[in-house]
Write a structure and sequence with these properties.
With 322 residues, the chain is of the alpha/beta class. The chain is built from 14 helices and ten strands. A six-stranded mixed β-sheet has the order 1-2-10-7-8-9, sandwiched between helices. Strands 5-4-3-6 form a four-stranded parallel β-sheet, sandwiched between helices. The longest helix is centred in the middle third of the chain and has 18 residues, at 149-166.
């Protein structure tokens, strides 16, 4: 696991620039699910998602003499925006490689922070090839979205902060993509609150981590088709899997319809317009209330980078079972 001292060091590093995000609560939600729910709203983090924590921690560690060569990232959106934002703060040039179908709100955010964008086909077998070649050609620093201890430590500050805000929890639900957020959060909670049940959440169509847990090793799936673009990866990272398989108690799946319903509920309860990936934990609690009844439950609302038109389009969809 990531040592708690490393996570605390990351917290000190990012403190001058990162937001201390709020914990959202609702008596209506508590009554609905029969639990006491604490929702850590990372949509109110810099660049609109938890990713800023890890990105700023990683970029801050780049030696001053290496910074003129720039940084390179590969991202479906939020990691790229976070790297671009951190790079702008630190005066480093950034290039972000994104899929051609990247969400418009996320592309606009990356451009807003001054990064150069390079497009690639989402279905390409090696999404990192272009970025790795750029690193080889220029000497830039590659900033991986999850397979980096400094990134994981940065993401773990979300759980560290939540623990400081609300105290002990019976369960913590975290969206799982490449696994960096959970690796950091699980590391923090296992050292701060060992009795807390750690639950990863994935879309049903993107259950690479669930399958990997069952197999006992990382499993690669076909490119997922889900509205949760931030969770649509084909395999967990080797480093993140090693941590998560050891620390995480369970991985559950939610349908796109359940994500849509959670988006609607988050807007109704808190006035927050969250992206599908961001509400995975909330969707999982709503889908299995018996599991969480009479428990203190933490949820990481991981991001809110979605434009109004797409949010309205998705939330107007029927919530049929898939």
């Amino acid at each position: 696991m990531i040592a708690l001292d490393e996570i605390r060091r990351a917290a000190a590093t990012i403190a001058p620039e990162a937001s201390v995000t709020p914990v959202l609560r609702s008596e209506r939600l508590n009554a609905l699910v029969g639990a006491t729910v604490f929702a850590k709203d990372e949509s109110q983090q810099r660049a609109g998602a938890f990713k800023f924590r890890g990105a700023f921690n990683r970029l801050s560690a780049i030696p001053v003499e290496d910074r003129p060569r720039g940084v390179v990232a590969v991202s479906s959106g939020n990691h790229g925006a976070a790297v671009a934002c951190a790079a702008q703060i630190l005066g480093i040039e950034a290039t972000v490689h994104v899929p051609q179908d990247v969400a418009e709100a996320k592309r606009a955010l990356i451009e807003h922070f001054g990064a150069r964008i390079v497009m690639f086909d989402r279905s390409t077998p090696d999404r990192e090839a272009g970025a790795r070649q750029q690193v080889a050609d220029t000497g830039a620093t590659f900033v991986h979205p999850f397979e980096d201890p400094l990134v994981m430590a940065g993401q773990g500050t979300a759980a560290l902060e939540l623990h400081e805000q609300v105290g002990a929890l019976d369960a913590l639900l975290v969206p799982m993509s490449g696994g960096g957020l959970m690796a950091g959060c699980a590391s923090a909670m296992c050292q701060l609150d060992a009795d807390c049940e750690l639950i990863g959440v994935e879309p049903t169509a993107a259950d690479d981590t669930r399958q990997s847990f069952a197999a006992g090793h990382p499993v690669r799936i076909a490119q997922p088709n889900t509205i949760a673009d931030g969770l649509a990866v084909t395999a967990p990272g080797d480093a993140t899997f090693a941590i998560n398989h050891h620390l995480v108690d369970d991985v559950v799946c939610v349908t796109d319809a359940q994500l849509v319903e959670a988006m609607r509920i988050a807007q109704d309860l808190w006035g927050r317009r969250l992206e599908p990936s961001g509400v995975a934990g909330l969707a999982a609690v709503l889908a299995d209330t018996d599991r969480f009844r009479n428990r203190r439950v933490g949820i990481v609302l991981s991001g809110g980078n979605i434009d109004e038109a797409r949010f309205d389009l998705l939330t107007d969809l029927p919530t049929r079972a898939e």
